[in-house]
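Aim 2 progress update. The chain analyzed this quarter is reproduced below.
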Amino acid sequence: MKFMPIAALALLTAAPALAQQGVSPTEIVIGSAQDLSGPIVNFSKAAVNGMRMRIDEANAAGGINGRKLRLVVEDHGYDPKKAVLAAQKLVQQDKIFVALGSIGTATAIAAMQIYLDAKVGHLFPLSGAREMFEPVAPLKFAFAAPYFDQVRAGIKRLVKDKGLKKVCTLYQDDDFGLEVARGAEAGLKDIGMAYAERTTYKRGATDFSSQVAKLKEAGCDGVVMGTIIRETIGVIGTAKKLDWNPVFVGTTASYSEIIHKLGGALVNGFYSTCTVNNPYPDDPNPKVKEWFAAYKAKFNEDPTVFSVYGWEIIELFATAANAAGKDLNPDTLNKAIETTKFPADMFGADENTFSPTKHLGTDRTMLCQIQDGKWKSVSEYLTN
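Predicted structure tokens:
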């Protein structure tokens, strides 16, 4: 029987375990793929600032189990092909531990598997698509209600509160718009109703006169909007010109301060589903008011709802990573997310809970409305 030389045995037993990518004794490297050069750059800029705000707070308090957070942001320009390249760089060159807050549905779907194949978490993306958490897979988690669930609950509440009789839909002719239309269709079916009329528009459209005329002719008193920013304002403006004033409701895709900043009095009364409260400098919550002032001092601009999303994404990760303990790796992180309760926060976000079979934190949504030029929540959290 041959024995290993003592020197070789000593060397073997002294060798350190394989290092976990993105985690060192002093640091956790996190990444985020954002649009820094494309059509939603303002959303991404605010989200990244919100992330940095929470990271600085966490690091100032000693980090996560003694490790400081370091954020690497890569630009995908809202292009799925560039999102793939961004993911490859973040995984292979930057050696990130997790990808947080990937923005955009098509871009996230295109790149997600690159992260997951490398056992890099794809956590809490800024997308309302169900693909962000279905099918259930390790390290694949979403934190807010998808468009389908949002509008399914929202339209039922509005039918009840406003006594709507003829609900219609106008939506962008793509996967996003169809998801919104289907969600409201399911909600109407729940209460024994169906669309009175439906119409679509092509992405990038600026003229909505024919669609609005069609809906007005059908006598619609409620319109579900699968629209984003410019289209939302354009549709409502066209309706006002035709002296037609139905109840308009959108999703978190149109829940932005840009709507009332650009639309002015025109968009007062517009509803949207929402998952947090939009921050304002005179917020009634003193903690939010203080946070607003600190954010503005730090970045020399007002925070937006995307700033809040960014802050919350880091808060969720920090809570999970802290629960995972000193031995932070993909398996301990996955287990921590599945077993940790993430409480509601100062911005009104719903409590998030996950499990081995449920990788969506919450499917509940509120209704918000523009009143006197500001978004205000006008319902409790709604369930389907």
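Confidence is low (pLDDT under 50) at residues 1-17. Residues 269 and 370 are 5 Å apart (CA to CA). These observations will guide the mutagenesis experiments scheduled for the next reporting period.
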